[in-house]
């Protein structure tokens, strides 16, 4: 598929708002989930180390 | 605890049900599934935007399909997998099965929301409405509430074992909603169109469109496995904090 120009690509034949609105929100949610996953792991490890420190 | 091992005829198939064995294995698998997901996603987006042609009826708006359909499939599939592990957890009383259920829920909720959101953005230009109380859309919204309900239920119970059992019962009861979603477009003739892809007949769409959609579905699948494995490892760290191996492990990851 040849869009001719990037302008045409972003326009999506007049449906840009709907198409990019779908892709942008999906991307944002996946990025957010990955951030939350990493945060949860870091917090779990921090809590474990605090427990270890309290016992030592 | 030895009973399941005996049932398996001496072959220790439950070896990997021990969090201690499962944890490092899952850790090795996460980057693989993550990179394969990224590769499928890149290929799917390339085919979806640069190979698949413009739809003669819907113009370019149909390109929402490359996330809408994979997200909707995953939203249902994740729930079925959850219900399966919930059943295994209730029958064999395996901690790891219950942890797997909890690990799948947020990703399932995310895909359900994506399916509803992209559906609204596709419905507006195609049907002229963001939302309708159509059979499929309503049952998919109920699925989102089931995911949220599961998280609220587990968050509301302090005792991990009771939270596991309550969640497992909810997951198993809620699974009746899945065939309702899947067959809704056949049972009720409301707004949402019928399936373009089914197991019993040839797909009613261009091959390149189908290829893009399937690549994105594989990406969603691989991403889900990576995310669920990552989350289940955190759940193991949170729950097994009395175990020596966990305490030693935490020190090496300072």
List keywords for this structure.
heterodimer, A: 56 residues, mainly alpha, B: 254 residues, 9 helices
Short description:
The complex is a heterodimer of chains A (56) and B (254). Chain A is mainly alpha-helical.
Structural description of this entry:
The complex is a heterodimer of chains A (56) and B (254). In chain A, 82% of the residues lie in helices and 0% in strands. The mean pLDDT of chain A is 91. Chain A has helices at residues 6-11, 16-55. With 56 residues, chain A is mostly helical. The radius of gyration of chain A is 22 Å and the shape is rod-shaped. Chain A has one domain (15-55). Chain B is mainly α. Chain B has a domain at 68-237. Helix content of chain B is 74%, strand content 0%. Chain B has helices at residues 3-7, 19-51, 65-92, 95-127, 135-155, 160-174, 177-187, 207-239, 244-252. In chain B, helix 2 packs antiparallel against helix 8 (207-239), helix 4 packs across helix 6 and helix 5 packs antiparallel against helix 6. The two termini of chain B are 34 Å apart. In chain B, 40% of the residues are buried. The interface between A and B is medium-sized, with 29 and 40 residues.
* Helix-strand topology string of chain A: HH
CA-CA gap between termini of chain B: 34 Å
Oligomerization category of the chains in this entry: heterodimer
Largest interface: A-B, 29 and 40 residues
**Unreliable residue stretches of chain A:** none
Mean pLDDT of chain B: 89
Major β-sheet profile of chain A? none
Number of domains of chain A: 1
- Indicate the radius of gyration of chain A in whole angstroms: 22 Å
